[in-house]
């Protein structure tokens, strides 16, 4: 059985959480010198600040990786998290799509269509549901209920 290799910089899924209280800080974490921009106090407890569903200190790297902007000061919860652990597998399973959206450039995820030219835009007069074809405000629907889409 081969052992799978985990590269945290190529992943970042563990840094994603579903709420603002995802990574609570302990007293020793506060003594590490985390910058004020990295933390938030909620209901008397201090947490790592979350933005866009992930830790605000998670930053994209050139080439598609992710890194922690405060790695040397990272909290106890982050230090205890081990690549390849059960928790790592759960994070990868549940949060990898979110990590990919931050890590990968949009062009790597979807095909970008070529630029449109004015010739590609249909003539508004030939489009269905033109504004002049819509009932005017206060007008009564001219289709009797017996002929509408829900007629019996």
Number of strands: 6
Mean pLDDT over the residues: 76
The radius of gyration is 26 Å
Shape: globular
Largest sheet: 2 strands, antiparallel
Low-confidence stretches at least 5 residues in length (pLDDT < 50)? 127-131
Strand order of the largest sheet: 1-2
Q: Specify the helix fraction band.
A: 10-25%
Q: What share of the residues does DSSP label as strand, in percent?
A: 5-15%
Backbone structural class:
alpha+beta
| Count of DSSP H/I helices | 4
Euclidean distance between termini CA atoms: 63 Å
Write the element-wise H/E pattern from the N-terminal end onward: HEEEEEEHHH
Structural features, described:
The protein has 152 residues and is α+β, with helices and mostly antiparallel strands. It contains four helices and six strands. The protein has helices spanning 27-30, 76-80, 86-103, 106-109; strands at 39-42, 45-48, 50-51, 54-55, 58-60, 66-68. A hairpin with a 2-residue loop joins strand 3 (50-51) and strand 4. The longest helix has 18 residues, at 86-103. The chain is globular, with a radius of gyration of 26 Å. Mean pLDDT is 76; it is low at 127-131.
């Amino acid at each position: 059985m081969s052992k799978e290799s985990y590269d945290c910089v190529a992943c970042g899924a563990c840094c994603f959480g579903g709420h603002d209280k995802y990574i609570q800080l302990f007293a020793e974490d506060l003594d590490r010198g985390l910058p004020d921009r990295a933390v938030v106090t909620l209901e008397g407890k201090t947490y790592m600040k979350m933005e866009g569903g992930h830790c605000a200190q998670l930053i994209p790297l050139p080439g598609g990786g992710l890194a922690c902007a405060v790695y040397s000061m990272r909290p106890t919860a982050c230090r205890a998290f081990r690549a390849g652990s059960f928790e790592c597998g759960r994070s990868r399973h549940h949060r990898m799509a979110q990590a990919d959206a931050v890590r990968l450039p949009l062009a790597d995820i979807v095909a970008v269509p070529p630029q449109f030219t004015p010739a590609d835009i249909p003539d508004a007069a030939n489009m269905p549901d033109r504004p002049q074809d819509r009932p005017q405000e206060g007008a009564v629907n001219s289709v009797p209920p017996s002929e509408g889409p829900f007629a019996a």
